[in-house]
Amino acid sequence: MSQTISESRIRNLKESLELSKISFRSEVRLSVLSSFKIGGICPLIVEPENTEQVLEVISIFKKSELPWKILGGGSNLLISDHPDNFVTLRLSGTFKKFDSFEEGRFRIGAATNTTPTFRQISQAGFRGVEFLSTIPGWTGGAVIQNAGCYGGELFDLIQTVEFLRNDEVLIKKPNEIEHGYRFTEFLNRKDSIILGIEILLEKGNLEEIEESLKDKRERRNSSQPENKKSAGSVFKNPKILKEDGKEIKAWELIDRAGLRGAFKGGAQISPEHCNFIVNVGAATASDVNYLVELVLDKVFQQSGILLKREIEYFGDIP
Ligand SMILES: Cc1cc2nc3c(=O)[nH]c(=O)nc-3n(C[C@H](O)[C@H](O)[C@H](O)COP(=O)(O)OP(=O)(O)OC[C@H]3O[C@@H](n4cnc5c(N)ncnc54)[C@H](O)[C@@H]3O)c2cc1C
């Protein structure tokens, strides 16, 4: 584990940010920015408002040799109980907007909230993004892991992704970016900042779109623990076929391993959907991690299948 960042380094960083007129917040409890409602105090959150400011922030981070991480909507993360050995970058300002240029072409900022954004686009009569209106988080985070559900995934819709890599703003088409099921090259490289995407949509029948929005909302409400603090599915489905030719789901393996409802501290494997771990009390990141390890171990013992985590860890989790 790396060391807590010293107060003097944070002070110097704040001075540089103030000089460049870049917003920041000190001593932020990250649990408030996490759908799990787990996470300790981070010394600094830096909130650049446009691409120029992002470039400036990265240059300041480099000069000060400070470790940093980028946070979106915090809905696919288990955040450390002690996130004090890095600073956090969180896009703001222009990244929170989306614009429509010509009929059906949208530019969507990386810090837009996916649910209201894609609901609004759907309700304006454009079809094909209804599934995204049920996924929590921000668009940048959705790009990172090619978020999807109900047979659709974000990369099916993307025309271009705009991102920052090696101090350069790049615009690439999906076929130039490695991606797959809940995976993109961004996940592995960890060297890119997603700034926004462009999508191109067709007009549809508004009644059918409304029906599809309702159907997806109902499917979600009926299959997932409602209003619970979680980060969604903890494990990826292993993409292995059963004897009946259907795909085996991660939740089935966890259930078969006898772990439905298992507890550790304030964390529980959801009795309603056992691929969810829920924070039912004052769960810590360590509590959740204990259950993650338990699932990996027991499922492997029971089925010989090694599940892979879908949620990511943000900071050190013992
Ligand atoms: C109840 C619930 C249901 C869910 N259902 C689904 C589902 O059906 N399908 C699905 O795919 N997911 C689902 N999720 C998971 C989550 O909502 C998605 O993965 C979401 O797209 C994550 O976005 P985020 O902004 O919250 O990312 P975060 O959790 O903030 O971050 C995720 C990763 O992306 C990185 N990141 C974030 N923004 C940027 C950026 N601008 N540039 C570079 N890196 C960035 C972070 O560093 C981190 O590595 C669910 C979550 C919950 C809580």
Automatic annotation (TrEMBL):
Pathway: Cell wall biogenesis; peptidoglycan biosynthesis
Active-site positions on this chain: 182, 233, 310
Top-level enzyme category: oxidoreductase
Enzyme Commission number(s) of this protein: 1.3.1.98
Keyword rRNA processing among UniProt keywords: no
Reaction catalysed by this enzyme: UDP-N-acetyl-alpha-D-muramate + NADP(+) = UDP-N-acetyl-3-O-(1-carboxyvinyl)-alpha-D-glucosamine + NADPH + H(+)
Domain of life: Bacteria
Main location: cytoplasm
Region (Disordered): 212-232
Family annotation (InterPro entries): FAD-bd_PCMH (IPR016166), FAD-bd_PCMH-like_sf (IPR036318), FAD-bd_PCMH_sub1 (IPR016167), FAD-bd_PCMH_sub2 (IPR016169), MurB (IPR003170), MurB_C (IPR011601), MurB_C_sf (IPR036635), Oxid_FAD_bind_N (IPR006094)
Subcellular location: Cytoplasm
Pfam families named in the record: FAD_binding_4, MurB_C
GO MF, one annotated term: UDP-N-acetylmuramate dehydrogenase activity
Cofactor(s) named in the record: FAD
Keyword set, alphabetical order: Cell cycle, Cell division, Cell shape, Cell wall biogenesis/degradation, Cytoplasm, FAD, Flavoprotein, NADP, Oxidoreductase, Peptidoglycan synthesis
Extent of Basic and acidic residues compositional bias: 212-229
The keyword Transport belongs to this UniProt entry's keyword annotation: no
Annotated FAD-binding PCMH-type domain residues: 38-204
Family statement: Belongs to the MurB family.
HAMAP family: MurB (MF_00037)
Function noted in UniProt: Cell wall formation.
The name this protein goes by in its record: UDP-N-acetylenolpyruvoylglucosamine reductase
